[in-house]
Amino acid sequence: MVKIKPFCGIRPPQEYAAEVASRPYDVLNSAEAKAEATERSLLHIIKPEIDFDPIADEHSEEVYQKAMENFRLWKERGWLKQDEKEHYYIYAQTMNGRTQYGIAMCCHFEDYLSGAIKKHELTRTDKEEDRMIHVRNQKANIEPVFFTYPDNDEINAIVEKVVAANEPDYDFVAEDGFGHHLWVVRDDATNKRITELFADIPALYVADGHHRTAAAARVGQECMANNPAHNGEEEYCYFLAVTFPASQLRIIDYNRVVRDLNGLSEEELLAALESSFEVECKGEEIYTPAALHNFAMYLGGKWYSLTAKEGTYDDNDPIGVLDVTVLSNLVLDKILGITDLRTSKRIDFVGGIRGLGALQQRVDSGEMKVAFALYPVSMQQLIDRADSGNIMPPKTTWFEPKLRSGVVIHSFE
To answer: Three-state secondary structure along the chain?
Structure first.
């Protein structure tokens, strides 16, 4: 069972919402952020290295201090204001005509430590440390993490009722064409009922934001250790998440490009693949994987269909059923000699939002030798994997649209 609470959100006035809200810190590099940031953009707070000329080292002390200075200035200038009462917030996103509705809430760090908030990816210590410094310095969760939960009919009905009965507090379309909508849940009884209902939800699942979740939990532990009177209800025990019902989310493909063929010729690679796959040349037109255990490969100006043969995967195993596991075991490791996806410099990852043409372009440019496209992981596979206590390989899931940072912020100062 999970413990959540409403909070006094810090958020932009309606007239500034579209400008303040930004893409997350980890989906664009510093140069892209500098080019994208307008005067009031939250990018000045979550990627403050862009305020230096030339762009500063994002891990330098002066950059961490700049983040604190900018957060203070945004509040002083009225670009961010704190609500006077605790609320939940309905945050909806629209992509390609489909809208998904989440609840912005505060989750308890002890649920992450106990496993009631379940993860499906490993984290890197250096990235955790970076996010910890920001959270610790700001005494705030500037960016939300992205959670999902098993569907609950009464929660769905509450969300529908709030949305139907009220005009959104924010309603804007970002530069990427995705819509973002926010409703403040102002009714006290409704807020209370949401808390009660989530107390019966068996688990929350990290969809996106593993490093931010781990960092928030570690800051919570630090604060607890430094407070002899700690009782578990302090604001620092809680961190910001937007949590969606699992049925509304869609995972898109997360693909791989490889720099070399591990000493093989193209013909030798094709021959090696035939031991584990049915290999079919599809010609020059882009081929999209048609089903689980079917892969697309781009090599030497041509697309191929690779269908894993019976016996090379285990659909009864939450690990063995995943196509990222099949590809890693049968191709990347066995044939191409890439044993550690987290550290190898020979492989790169491309989110499906960029389209399969992006894979073809990187191979045609000569930067990469071969590309592999995968059938998307399902939400049920993610949940089964997390429930089993196992970890997915790196770069398995890509959720779109991303949450906008700065729509609402949680402070524990």
So the answer is: CCCEECECCEECCHHHHHHHCECCHHHCCHHHHHHHCCCCCCHHHHCHHHHCCCCCCCCCHHHHHHHHHHHHHHHHCCCCEECCCCEEEEEEEEECCEEEEEEEEEEEHHHHHHCCEECCCCCCHHHHHHHHHHHHHHCEECCCEEEEECCCHHHHHHHHHHHHHCCCCEEEECCCCCEEEEEEECCHHHHHHHHHHHCCCCCEEEEECHHHHHHHHHHHHHHHHCCCCCCCCCHHHEEEEEEEEHHHCCEECEEEEECCCCCCCHHHHHHHHCCCEEEEEEECCCCCCCCCCEEEEEECCEEEEEEECCCCCCCCCCCCCCHHHHHHHHHHHCCCCCCCCCCCCCEEEEEHHHCHHHHHHHHHCCCCCEEEECCCCCHHHHHHHHHCCCCCCCCCCEECCCCCECCCEEECC
The pLDDT tens digits for 148-158 are: 999 999 999 99
* Residue-wise pLDDT tens digits, 43-91: 999 999 999 999 999 999 999 999 999 999 999 999 999 999 999 999 9
Tell me: pLDDT of 160 over 90.
yes
CA distance 340 to 333: 8
In this structure, which topology does domain 254-375 adopt according to CATH? 3.30.1760
What is the distance between the alpha carbons of residues 12 and 5, in angstroms, rounded to a whole number? 21
Which residues in the chain are classed under CATH 3.30.1760?
Answer: 254-375
- Report the C-alpha gap between 274 and 297 in whole angstroms: 13
Pairing of strands 302-308, 294-299: antiparallel
